[in-house]
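Input set for joint prediction.
Command: fold jointly, output tokens.
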Amino acid sequence: SQKIEQNSEALNIQEGKTATLTCNYTNYSPAYLQWYRQDPGRGPVFLLLIRENEKEKRKERLKVTFDTTLKQSLFHITASQPADSATYLCALDKTGGGADGLTFGKGTHLIIQP
Amino acid sequence: EPEVTQTPSHQVTQMGQEVILRCVPISNHLYFYWYRQILGQKVEFLVSFYNNEISEKSEIFDDQFSVERPDGSNFTLKIRSTKLEDSAMYFCASSSPPGRNQPQHFGDGTRLSIL
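tokens >
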């Protein structure tokens, strides 16, 4: 069955350093992959989308890579700040028609320490 | 910036009762979704909806569940006879055409507590 794994339940990073989060998947050939941020008691907020034919995508301090051979995506936050503390979710599409539901990983809880 | 709004923010219901969760998606979006998140667990897909019909549904979305777009702005999820295990956060989301390869915009959810 399809499976998505995110690298750890909690990740502690010193402010100013780069945080790197991992998303691995199996039994999947997604056309694209998305990263979301979720704060406690709130809905997921879209951050970045990367397509299967793209190796890397950037937005301000965020960078995503997508390796379809390794079946892995890496999500980087450079110059991290305490306000970046949140749970980060990896999500993959399902194959099929237009209104595809997303399959989410459990998320990595990122803590940026001042 | 336009946003997805959900009401109520918290719903408490006796087991066996019917509940209707309401959502107002972003106005020019055409694809609508419901997800749920049981406390401490991952976000799970329930159903997607396009052109006034269900496009896709998960195993969770059984005969107890139904969705409707009763007018041009609302999108509802009905649970006919609630069970204790239906207690969760329910998120509505919407996306613009063509649906696939588009970000999904989520509301802040309805916390459903079944007693």
